[in-house]
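A reminder before we start the practical. When you read a complex entry, don't treat the lines as separate problems. The point of joint prediction is that each chain is placed relative to the others, so the output describes one connected object in space. Small molecules and nucleic acid strands, if listed, are placed in the same frame. In the example below there are two entries. Take a minute to note the order of the lines before looking further.
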Amino acid sequence: MHLPKASPPLRGALLRLLSRLTAHAFFRNLLLAKVRKDARIHELPIQ
Amino acid sequence: MSSSPEGAQALADAYRSGKDDPVRALLRCLAAIDRGEGDRAVLCKVPGAAVEAEAARARLAAGKPLGLLDGIPIAVKDCIDVQGLPSTNGTSFLQTPAAADAVLVQRLRKAGAIVFAKCAMHELGIQPTGVNPIQGTPVNPWDPKRIPGGSSSGSAVAVASGLAPVAIGTDAGGSVRVPAALNGLVGLKPTFGAVPLDGVAGLTLDLDHAGPIAWTVEDAARIFEVLAARPLARAPFTGKVALLADFLIGTEDALVNAAREAVLAVFGPVDEVATPLCAWATAVEFVIVGTDAQQTCGHLLRDHAAELGADTRTILNLGRGLAARDRARADAVRNGMRRELGALLERYEVLIGPAVGAQAPLLHKGALACGELDVGKIANLAAVTFVTNLTGHPCCVVPCVREGAPMSVQIIGRHGAEATVLAAARRIEQAFGPRRPPRWYG
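Here is the predicted structure of the whole assembly.
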């Protein structure tokens, strides 16, 4: 299975901070760019 | 079998022989819930269950049972409506009592089942870990230091630790099968659409399913027959089997070995087949859940952001940023996955792979207090379960080891072929049987 690239687990204050930051488009898109890359969403094989 | 857990079939047999009755069985379950209260599997007891148990006892004494489930206590996940009780869906703020029973609860009650408890779950069913800092995280009865699995965490723990003979969970990405596997139980995700979801809070538009978590394949079959309102044949399995090679890639060695050995022991040497499109299930599931959840749960993010857990809020926020092109890609691959599995299932009656990609991960103290978002953990656990949510095929997990921590295989069949899937699962069960965990309240 294609698994996303490993990244550190988010907990505690960092997770709470991210949950607030991702409410704003700028930070959301920043994190999403990393998630897209790690999960290889751009590489999904369209047939 | 190292012990004889008290499942639905065992109870029904005891009722029929006069050795037990629904009132005594319910009282045992309620007492077990009290003893196991600290393990947080059950959120609340359903009022009126005792009256229903008395009525079932009278029917059975008169030789007029309503059906196979008459007098059987059943617990349901807390996203399933039970009239007069809130369906919290794992949150702190959804507290409005349901106006009516979910259709599946109506069907259970019509068959005589006693819906007696509502079970804890991961908030909004959004992760397969079962870690819920708001309502509490159910304790894994095999190892309290490890996660229980989710999102139907309480349903699985309630059965595994002896609080309920069977329970109902829901599954949009593995939420019946992951906790069933981590707790050493049978879990059935039926064919998409086979079980009605009216009155069930969903996470997605078309990935959600409801199904049984049980001790035995026969219990899962009986519950499915009632939930889906259709009978299942009980013919022995004699069809062709293949092992899903891509499901072995990225899966822990111990689980791969257990799956290979179980298949070889039960079915003999089998073909290994590749599913290159299904291997993308994690990315596809993330995009579809993220975008669908804007429609199913967007109002909760808008109106109750501060009350949601930080993990749930982050996932919902990220979903807002997914673009239409992400969704179009995911939908295209999903269609390919359906064709891929469909073509294989024309050659083989069932496809088998490990039920999950990892054994129950350790529970971090920080996660208990304020939740956790660990993309690696989610994908490692559930990449292999996402597949049949995306394709809609029926899938059953069944334990496949005789000792040590629970390990299970998943069995996938053709659309509507639950009878075949369960027949193959029965073959595995005959070889390995259910095992009771060390933590037991029954």
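Discuss with your neighbour: The radius of gyration of chain A is 13 Å. What might explain this?
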